[in-house]
Design a protein that fits this description.
This protein is of the alpha+beta class. About 35% of the residues lie in helices and about 15% in strands. The protein has 18 helices and 22 strands. The protein has helices at about 5-10, 50-60, 65-80, 135-145, 150-165, 170-180, 185-190, 195-200, 215-230, 230-235, 235-250, 255-260, 285-300, 310-330, 345-355, 475-490, 495-500, 525-530, and strands at about 35-40, 40-45, 90-95, 100-105, 165-170, 210-215, 265, 270-275, 275-280, 375, 380-390, 395-400, 430, 455-460, 465-470, 505, 515, 535-540, 550, 560, 570, 575-579. An 8-stranded antiparallel beta sheet has the order 8-9-14-15-19-20-1-22. A 7-stranded antiparallel beta sheet has the order 7-4-3-12-11-2-21, with helices on one face. Strand 11 (about 380-390) and strand 12 form a beta hairpin. Helix 3 (about 65-80) packs antiparallel against helix 4 (about 135-145), helix 3 runs parallel beside helix 5 (about 150-165) and helix 14 crosses helix 18. The longest helix is centred in the middle third of the chain and has 21 residues, at about 310-330. The protein is globular and about 60 Å long.
């Protein structure tokens, strides 16, 4: 479909021209953050190439779902550490003005042979039995079936072309691929021989900016999916390759597991914040519940009347995070296997939780849930946002769990398997101060969807999409999204400033606040006051990667911002860059 010259020109836009090796030790340096404005639609993702693929679908008459599906498949090629067809996720869709958003749940499931004692405490998360039944292909197909406009083949084929014809390696892909290939286990273990073969350079050297990466096995897989739909992945030759890989690596997934997988249409979790409506993914994601619960708690505190990073606001936000994550541990799991209280996202429940906040002292985390025994003690995802000229919007987060998932590539099929079984609670009753959770709701059961922190959000105003946001980052996802929403809706920052602002994270246990700005002199006084209140404040270099889109209420233009913390780009139809 594409010529090699076209692909190379596409991939070189915005890439350093000098060919240099990328160290695996340090991520690429921070790049300036900027807004991209467009009137014809916007795609923001972790890969400039994938964003351009999505933009071209919009330009070809496709809608936001068409562009999202094309972007997702392209990310499976150009961002293999997290873009995937071997994992799963959640897609939030706003069909258009006056219509109700919907969530497509394509979270992975536990194989039918799974048990709640299949892992020991020290089990490796990088082997075959750590993989859950993937949902991405079924989920993207369901989204396209319900809302797509262009032919399925049209939206999948660009990814196959990229894999087959090759694409230029950028700084982030070089760093990511070199990092995984230099991991001692990956270098030495036969378990990861296919990863080395598929993603290693032919001369065994390090990947450099400007190199061309070709993925012929993945291209064949994508062409089969383009021709025959999702069934090609779950019931055909690819399924045979998948199961053969499971047998070689002592995994549990069978053809019955693959054939039986279903993506689900779910009603989003919804809430309000001032004049805005918030829509997030429901369980088995914890993101929608936790973010809206936190926003409900914070709404009455009139945060905007105080400095954004003053000790008063940081203390309140930390205490709210602590309480939302405590409820997450108590209650949240696959709703088909757990009874989840119906009042968690109500203003009443939020008020009851907020009443327990002491303005002068940090609340010790273990006092919030005395019924959960605390035992004595001896992350990687991708988010993208898409909107079309008619206001249809998609906020999508999907993952392999860890960076490069289980590190196992399906032989002959070219894709990386997830290690999502690690998102279940492995040890019944063992909850630790270090962050391990052992509550009953999220224990392993056959066919069950593991709890997720993915938080793709759509914010509407007067029935129209206003803000699309989300992030990678394991449990930090929830608080990254919370911070972005507060920055835009409460503190009225520009989208670029909101994404640029330092992020904070508290997850109940461990009982500590991580803050990107902790080493900055401008925050020194606030941090000292937080410590005097009893908070343990630690540094975090980079948290998340919130590729977001906002609609300018005055002009109707779409504003796209790619997060500086990871690679990627905002690409708009009829766009301009605003520094």
């Amino acid at each position: 479909m594409f010529s090699r010259a076209w692909l190379n020109n596409l991939c070189l836009v915005g890439v350093i021209a000098v060919v240099v090796p990328m160290s695996a030790a340090e991520p690429p340096a921070r790049k300036p953050i900027h807004e991209v404005r467009a009137s014809g639609g916007m795609v923001v993702s972790d890969s400039e190439i994938a964003s351009r693929v999505g933009r071209d679908v919009l330009a070809d008459g496709g809608n936001a779902v068409d562009a999202a599906v094309a972007t997702a498949f392209a990310l499976a090629v150009t961002w293999p550490e997290a873009g995937n067809i071997g994992g799963g996720g959640f897609m939030m869709i706003h069909p258009g003005t006056g219509q109700t958003p919907i969530c497509i749940d394509y979270r992975e499931t536990a194989p039918l042979a799974a048990t709640d004692t299949m892992f020991t405490k020290d089990d490796s998360r990088y082997k075959g039995k750590a993989a859950g039944v993937p949902g991405t292909v079924r989920g993207l197909a369901l989204a396209h079936q319900k809302f797509g406009k262009l032919a399925w083949n049209r939206v999948v084929t660009p990814a196959a072309d990229l894999a087959e014809q090759g694409f230029i390696v950028d700084a982030w892909l070089a760093h990511s691929t070199n990092s995984i290939l230099e991991t001692p286990d990956v270098r030495e273990s036969n378990r990861y021989a296919e990863l080395r073969r598929v993603y290693g350079r032919a001369d065994s050297g390090v990947w450099k900016v400007g190199d061309t990466m070709v993925l012929p096995d993945l291209a064949k897989t994508l062409r089969a999916i383009a021709a025959d739909g999702a069934d090609a992945f779950y019931e055909g030759k690819i399924a045979d390759q998948f199961v053969a890989q499971m047998k070689r690596g002592n995994g549990l997934i069978t053809k019955q597991d693959l054939a039986g997988y279903e993506a689900k249409l779910r009603e989003p979790i919804r809430g309000t914040y001032r004049e805005y409506e918030l829509f997030g993914p429901p369980p088995p994601s914890s993101g929608g519940v936790c973010v809206i619960e936190a926003m409900n708690m914070l709404e009455p505190f009139r945060l905007r009347e105080h400095p954004r990073y003053g000790s008063r606001n940081m203390h309140l936000i930390t205490e709210v995070m602590r309480r939302a994550f405590c409820d997450r541990a108590r209650y949240l799991a696959d709703p088909e296997f757990a009874n989840i209280p119906s009042d968690l996202t109500t203003k009443t429940h939020a008020a009851e939780l907020a009443d327990s906040i002491d303005f002068d002292r940090a609340t010790p985390s273990e006092t919030l849930a005395p019924e959960i025994a605390i035992a004595p003690e001896s992350t990687d995802t991708t988010h993208f946002s898409v909107i079309d000229r008619n206001g249809m919007a998609v906020s999508n987060t999907y993952t392999l769990e860890a960076s490069w998932g289980s590190r196992i590539v399906v032989a002959g099929a070219g894709f990386v398997l997830n290690n999502e079984m690690g998102d279940f609670n492995w040890e019944r009753g063992v909850t630790t101060r270090g962050g391990q959770i052992g509550t009953t709701a999220n224990l392993i059961e056959p066919g069950k969807r593991m709890l997720s922190s993915q938080s793709p959000f759509i914010v509407t105003r007067d029935g129209k999409a206003f803000l699309l946001t989300g992030s990678p980052g394991g449990r930090t996802i929830i608080n990254t999204v919370l911070g972005n929403l507060l920055n835009v809706l409460e503190f009225e920052m520009t989208l670029a400033d909101a994404i640029d602002a330092p992020r904070m994270h508290h997850q109940w246990f461990p009982d500590e606040l991580r803050f990107e700005g902790s080493k900055s002199p401008e925050h020194a006084d606030a941090i000292e006051q937080l410590r005097m209140k009893g908070h343990t404040v630690l540094h975090r270099d980079r948290q998340g990667s919130a590729h977001s889109v906002q609609v300018d209420q005055a002009t109707g233009q779409f504003i796209g911002v790619a997060d500086w913390r990871r690679g990627g780009a905002a690409i708009g139809a009829n766009s301009e860059v605003v520094e």
